[in-house]
Amino acid sequence: MKIKAMIQSLEFKQQLARKADKSNIRLEFVNYNEPLIPQIQDTDILINSFDKIDKSFIDSCPNIKLVQQSGIGVDSIDIDYCSRKGIYVANVPMANAISVAEHTFLLMLYLVKNIKISLFNSPTNTGSFVRRQQDRMGSELLGKTLLIIGLGVTGIEVAKRAKAFGMKVIAVTKHPFTKTEGGDKKYFVDNLYGVDKLSEAIPRADILSIHAPLNRETENMIGSNELNLMKQSAYLINVARAQVVSKDALIKSLKEGKIAGAAFDVFWKEPVDPKDELLLLDNFLLTPHIAGWTHEAIDSISDIIFINIERIMRGQIPLTLVNKVDENL
């Protein structure tokens, strides 16, 4: 079988290469300096990171059997078309949950402690932390209310850590009473609501943290109405997908001081334009989509990817399948 990987992270490529050697599987990486389609036309299994896998892309790979996403989000893949073509789509749903949860608290603490990095004028671009707003003190997390939107595996890990900080935790999620690994979701939070109660939960939050997948239901879920419901002192965190939030509405809210600040690990268009309007605001922080990329996470991600590859090679269904495929196709 021809197995190709569309990966740009050097560390991740090295980890995948090590796992492939250990499993005696031949893995080829695409060269992003050359046209992609000629390189992947003969592939049977495609490992994807951030590239868009649409109808035209899929049609250019007549032998493809599996599109393996390297993370939990599959919004860049035309899953419906893959299903109609008999192509499996698999993701990696739990491997980086702890990494993302910890990164959430990095962003949270950055915001509430009212700090930013001031770069020194030096060749090394070193700097020091200074107050972000000179007339404002930092705050504690103890006693603050955290609203988690999307109480899946990552959302639960965030809730656990919030409890350790002494926070009150409320959550809004699509299936609030569905059991998850380790017990009912309600055991991890103080209050749990369905999506229909979002507008009632938002005004209670000191920090709103997004952990929901991007789909037709969640796109622009946080718009002008929702941002206007937030406390003026509240912060917004997004480590899921930028498109869950309306960019125009966020810019307006930050500029007018309707919310205190926002911190994202994702953006609407990546790579990010350094001149983007949001990046010019003092009350907005962006990290470069690295929340889920740690040594521990990519080790676990690689393990799951190769389990799925080996299952396909044995004629089995991927362990972390996300679509329904007609086996008769």
From TrEMBL:
CDD domains: formate_dh_like. InterPro entries: D-iso_2-hydroxyacid_DH_PdxB, D-isomer_2_OHA_DH_cat_dom, D-isomer_DH_CS, D-isomer_DH_NAD-bd, NAD(P)-bd_dom_sf. GO terms for molecular function: NAD binding; oxidoreductase activity, acting on the CH-OH group of donors, NAD or NADP as acceptor. Keywords: NAD, Oxidoreductase. Residues 33-323 form the D-isomer specific 2-hydroxyacid dehydrogenase catalytic domain. Belongs to the D-isomer specific 2-hydroxyacid dehydrogenase family. It comes from Candidatus Nitrosocosmicus arcticus. The keyword DNA repair does not apply. Residues 107-291 form the D-isomer specific 2-hydroxyacid dehydrogenase NAD-binding domain. PROSITE patterns: D_2_HYDROXYACID_DH_2. The lineage of its organism: Archaea, Nitrososphaerota, Nitrososphaeria, Nitrososphaerales, Nitrososphaeraceae. Pfam families: 2-Hacid_dh, 2-Hacid_dh_C. This is 2-hydroxyacid dehydrogenase.
